[in-house]
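User: C-alpha cells for this complex, please. No commentary.
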Amino acid sequence: MLYFIGLGLGDAKDITVKGLEIVKQCSRVYLEAYTSILTVGKDALEEYYGRELILADRDMVEQEADEILKGADVSDVAFLVVGDPFGATTHSDLVLRAVNAGIQYRVIHNASIMNAVGCCGLQLYNFGETVSIVFWTDTWRPESFCDKIKKNRDLGMHTLCLLDIKVKEQSMENLMRGRKIYEPPRFMTVSQAAEQLLEIVQNRRERGDDLAISEETICVGLARVGAEDQVIRAGTLRQLASCDLGGPLHSMIVTGHLHPLEVDMLRLSAATPDSLQDLRMTDSSTYTS
Amino acid sequence: MLYFIGLGLGDAKDITVKGLEIVKQCSRVYLEAYTSILTVGKDALEEYYGRELILADRDMVEQEADEILKGADVSDVAFLVVGDPFGATTHSDLVLRAVNAGIQYRVIHNASIMNAVGCCGLQLYNFGETVSIVFWTDTWRPESFCDKIKKNRDLGMHTLCLLDIKVKEQSMENLMRGRKIYEPPRFMTVSQAAEQLLEIVQNRRERGDDLAISEETICVGLARVGAEDQVIRAGTLRQLASCDLGGPLHSMIVTGHLHPLEVDMLRLSAATPDSLQDLRMTDSSTYTS
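Assistant:
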C-alpha cells in the first residue's frame, strides 16, 4: 500500500493520530520537499516520528517515481506531504503511476492552506479560483494572475494568492555548466506580493485598463498559518506592501464582497487601528450590509 | 484559552496529535453537532479521547454561547468541530464573542471537505464558489445555486456542492405546538442532489434559459471522504442521479474545464467503464488538451 499522508501546517504534532501510526509501521517513508514547508525541519520530524525520512525533491518524484513505488505492492510505503496531499499536480501523477503498477493507495488527509485560510474570518464558500504569484525575473513578468483576481472580484469572490517558493533552484550559469549547485531557498513575502500587485495595478491604470483593484483594496496577509507564531494582517493593498510578517510561508488574500461578519473578523487583525474602521465608507463597492 | 479543534473527516483517529493532547487537558470539551458528522458517534469519540463530550447543537452555540465561554479566561475549554473549525459562520460568531469577553482563542486545523475533495483528482486551484444544495419543500424550491454553478462553469471552474444536513428539525406541527420532538436526521445523497439539478436543468431549458449544464455534464459524487469506506464516483449528471453511494455524508462536484491529468484521475472512479472513455468527443466544451 502507498500512503499519501498530509502533515498539516505547523510542526511535527500536526500530523493526525492515524497518520502517525501509519508512518511508524511503513517500510520506507518519503518526505515531499518542494511544494511547502513546516516551521520545523526534517531532523525534528525524524526525531518525533522515530523514523528516518527520505527527502523527495521534485526531480525524484518526477523522474524516479519507480524508486518510491518499489515494493509498495507487498509492503507499506508512506509519502509525506506538508498540508494535504492533493494540493500539487505531481501527486496525481504519482497516484496514477501507482495504480498502473497495480499498487493500492490511500490518502490520510490534513489541513492545507486551501482550507486553513478560513481562520482569518473570510468564508471559504466565497473564494473563487486560487492564483499563484511567482517571483519576477528580468525577462519573465507574468501578470495573468491579476486577470483571475479581477474575475473573482467581479463576482464578489475572494482570491487566495499562493506565493512563490524557490527550492533547489540553479543559477543560469550553474545550470548551463551542468553544475548541481543550488541557490538558497527563497519564499515570497506578503510585502513582495503586494508590491508586485501594486506595480501591475499602476501599469494597467496608465494603459486605461481597469483591474477592479486599487491601492485601497482590502487584502489579508497570512504568515505561518497553523503555527504558534501565526500572523494575520488585514489592511489595504498599500499597507500590506510595507508590512513585515516574519519568516515563511506567506500567503495573501485579495478580498471580494465582504459580509459584515467577515469585516468584524478582519478587524481583529487590522494592520492599523483605523485600517478597517471606515470600510463602509472608503470601499463601499466591496461591502454592503 | 478557547481551543477550536478540527476533527478531520473519518473517525476518532483523524484528530491531530496536537489536538488530542489539548482535548485531554481541557476542563470542558464541547462537540459541535450540526454542520457535519464523522463515521463514528459521540460514544466512540468519548471512549477514544478518554473525555466526556458536551454536545453543542445550533441552539446552544447561538443562544448559550456564554455557557461555552464560561471560565475560558482562566482555564482551557475545547470546542470540537468535524472537519476544520472555519467552515461555518457561527464559529466566527463564537470567536468574536470570546474576543469581546477578553478570552484568547487558538485554532487547531484539520482536513475539511473544502480541501479533502482534491482526492478525486480535480485540482483545488480550479474550484470556483462553493454552493449548498438544500432539501426542497412543497413551498421552498431554491434554484439560485444553479446560477452560481453556471458562473463557475463559464469561467471553466469546478463547483463543490455541499449537500443538506437536517439535524434536530421539528415537524411543522411540533414546532407550532412548541413540542421539542425532533425528526430523525436526514442527509442529502448525491443521487437526490443530481435529480434536483436535473429537474432545474429541464425547467430552465423549457424556458429557453441556458444553464451551461446538461444531462451529460461530468459530475463527481463523493461519499464519506477520508473514511475507510470512502466512495468516489465520476460520471454524467444523469448517471449520478441513479447511483447509490451508501451512508452519509455525501458531496457532489459539477466539473468545469478538465485538464488531461484530471480526466485521467477521474477515470479511476468512473461510474461505468465507458463513462469517461470518450470524454473528449462527447463533452468537448469542457475538455481541451
